[in-house]
Specification:
This protein is an alpha/beta fold and 407 residues long. The protein contains eleven helices and 17 strands. It has helices spanning 20-32, 44-51, 59-62, 111-124, 174-179, 185-196, 211-222, 254-262, 279-288, 302-321, 325-336; strands spanning 6-7, 12-13, 81-86, 95-98, 101-104, 138-143, 146-151, 161-166, 200-205, 228-232, 243-247, 269-272, 293-298, 343-350, 356-364, 379-386, 391-394.
């Protein structure tokens, strides 16, 4: 680094830039020591003046500093907090999800701190430029292992709100999940063999069930020998060797177009963080043309996951062709039940004892264009969770060509 080099973001010589690392460490120490405790009820400018740290920093400076105001109280892993929530009214405290339970912290903050924190999340998540003064009433993204969704007036009528998920510093591997009995070694091996052979996979489950954790473990495992292209609107899933991460453009139909664009990136697999709209059709079409995919989908069971996939793909097809009806339904259903797609569903959720685990792994059987929209999808259960043994057990053999006679 030379004295005359210029930081393009700051537009000032590097020699004049503040020591962002030192400022971050000092602010974090103020929170850990409790010296910021009395500062949350005053505006940020007053708090920085009182502590002597962060005074006079511009938005372009804060874009380089990984510090998020009152959120820092719970960011340390030792707190075992997974979510931080603020609902808007200035007299209401923060809530956190800690060790699986929702907890009222009793911590309140000045409304200016909430605005400041929203701006800092957007700056660090590259959703806002330092020169911009305003941002949309609803925004989401990922910044420094914080997945956030923020809202403000007129959408949030009672004040600016925060919903922040703390992503792990170290993502769990398949070995970790087997050790934790989230799934069995046999089931893990079958999933890896299916992915090595070009099958597509839906990881389904309710909110907070572990869909992203399982998907991350699988993508980390297969990335050792495959090229992965991730398509997300927040960049939540971890990076992998020989992988490309695409950010979904903020426009109608942007997700589906990003999936189609991913086909030109020579992917072994296309990874969609969450299937929730018209991208379902693009994902099915990609799988049918030799570009298999992995995606998460919200559902309480395999049939629910497949019905949601069908419904979303129908929306995508209608957007593309301007039509629908039974013919379109048969096309979509034919793709889902095609031997060229070779689709598996891994259902994850809570056991009867309240433990997170893979509850079933099912393969979709070949049916082609038969059946009608809303009919039960033909599936073959390969693994099912036994509530008496409290573990995932093998109950069937693979019918698809990739595993016939071997699994």
């Amino acid at each position: 680094m030379f004295p005359d080099e210029v930081d393009a973001d700051l537009d000032v010589p590097f020699s004049q830039a503040p020591d962002y690392g030192a400022i971050t460490e000092e602010l974090q120490m103020l929170v850990r020591s409790g010296r910021m405790r009395s500062c949350w009820d005053m505006p940020p400018a007053e708090a920085f003046a009182l502590t002597g740290v962060g005074v006079g920093l511009a938005a372009r400076d804060w874009a380089h500093i990984s510090w998020f105001g009152p959120l820092e109280i719970w960011r340390d892993p030792e707190h075992e907090v997974s979510d931080i929530l603020y609902n808007g009214p200035s007299d209401e405290p923060f809530y956190v999800a800690q060790r699986g339970a929702m907890v009222c912290t009793g911590v309140t903050a000045h409304s200016d701190w909430i605005t400041w924190t929203q701006r800092q999340l957007l700056l660090r998540g590259h959703k806002l430029q330092p020169a911009e003064e305003t941002w949309p009433a609803m925004a989401q993204g990922v910044a420094d292992r914080l997945r956030f969704a923020v809202a403000g007036p007129p959408v949030a009528r009672e004040g600016r709100s925060l919903a922040v998920r703390l992503l792990p510093e170290r993502w769990r591997t398949l070995d970790d999940l087997v050790q934790a009995e989230l799934l069995s070694r046999e089931a893990s091996d079958l999933l890896l063999e299916a992915l090595a052979s070009g099958a597509s996979l839906l990881v389904s489950g309710p909110t907070g069930s572990g869909k992203t954790t399982l998907t991350a473990a699988l993508t980390q495992a297969i990335s050792r020998r495959m090229r992965l292209v991730f398509v997300e609107d927040g960049g939540e899933l971890p990076r992998a060797p020989n992988s490309l991460h695409l950010e979904v453009p903020a426009e109608e139909g942007g997700f589906a177009r990003a999936v189609s664009f991913a086909l030109r990136q020579k992917p072994s697999y296309i990874i969609v963080g969450e299937v929730r709209g018209s991208e379902a059709m693009a994902l099915l079409q990609a799988s049918a043309t030799g570009h298999p995919g992995i995606g998460t989908i919200h559902a309480s069971g395999a049939q629910g996951a497949l019905r949601n996939l069908e419904r979303m793909a129908m929306i995508g097809m209608a957007a593309e062709t301007g039509g629908g009806g039974q013919a379109a339904a048969q096309i979509v259903r034919g793709l889902i039940t095609s031997d060229t797609v070779s689709l598996l569903v891994a259902q994850i959720g809570l056991t009867a004892r309240g433990r997170r685990a893979v509850l079933a792994i099912e393969e979709v059987l070949r049916q082609g264009g038969q059946g009608h929209s809303g009919d039960v999808f033909p599936t073959n259960t390969l693994f099912a969770h036994d509530p008496y043994q409290e573990r995932l057990v093998r109950v069937g053999n693979v019918n698809a060509a990739w595993g016939l006679g071997r699994f």
